[in-house]
Prior knowledge:
single chain, two-stranded antiparallel sheet, 5 helices, mainly alpha
Amino acid sequence: MDVAVRAWLLAQLGPTTDTSDLDARYARLTSARAVANEVLAERRAKLLAEPLQMTVNGVATFDQSNNLTGLERQIASMEDAIAPDDPTGRDTLVIAPLQSAHRRYYHWRR
């Protein structure tokens, strides 16, 4: 992973994200966008595994629903984000079937 990809991932996921974990994920997934999506999905799953709201009457209220909403928005916004390792239009490979010149000539004469 190069410096630009690491910086982008830290900007998306927060500066306290474990960079050795990001390196391992990037080596496995080979895409900054895939790494960010996986980390965000795990964070969302962790929130959903615990109660989102808990109230101890007269003492405290604990509410994680806004955090869940924020994570879901961030996951949705990843579709529009441009990662530094995303392919550009000029890097697109186009594969087209080829026909032999003899075959084209034969069909033309019919």
